[in-house]
Amino acid sequence: MKLGRLNHIGVATPSIADSIAHYRDVMGASDITEPFDLPEQGVKVCFVNTPTHSGMDGTQIELIEPYDESSPINGFLAKNPAGGQHHVCFEVPDIAEARAEFEGMGKRVLGPTRIGAHGTPIFFVHPKDMQGMLTEIMETSKGDH
């Protein structure tokens, strides 16, 4: 498995509106997407785009708020009521190949491969198999290859 680009850091929040205000007013972020619902993932999402430097793409911060009471991040927020870093996401060129490699190494892939907030296939790897970090693996869009 070759490490791809860090695409984003997922931050669970009880309120996307409050988190947007924090990143805008405290951190000076000016490029923040409008929140949108991903009911199939159980979350509301928006992205804080960090600036590019020295020709390198900026990394995104993905703000995720529970969509409803069945959201998979409700458990995280119950343990961390103020929210916090939820996952990291790395890019791969071929999601099926990456999944097979992780499974071949005995890593626990959580659930089926599905379409993520960027509109490309994703899967998650259990934090106990990834040095304590829930890790999202995301296929780069075909235009990014």
UniProtKB/TrEMBL annotation:
Q: What is this protein called?
A: Methylmalonyl-CoA epimerase
Which GO molecular function annotation, any one, does this entry have? metal ion binding
The EC number(s) given in the record are 5.1.99.1
Q: Which positions fall inside the VOC domain?
A: 5-140
The keyword Heme is assigned to this record: no
The answer to whether UniProt assigns keyword Metal-binding to this entry is yes
Pfam families assigned: Glyoxalase_4
Q: Which family does it belong to?
A: Belongs to the methylmalonyl-CoA epimerase family.
Q: Which GO terms describe its biological process?
A: L-methylmalonyl-CoA metabolic process
Species: Parerythrobacter jejuensis
Q: Which UniProt keywords apply?
A: Isomerase, Metal-binding
Matching entries from InterPro entries are given as:
Glyas_Bleomycin-R_OHBP_Dase (IPR029068), MeMalonyl-CoA_epimerase (IPR017515), MMCE/EMCE_epimerase (IPR051785), VOC_core (IPR037523)
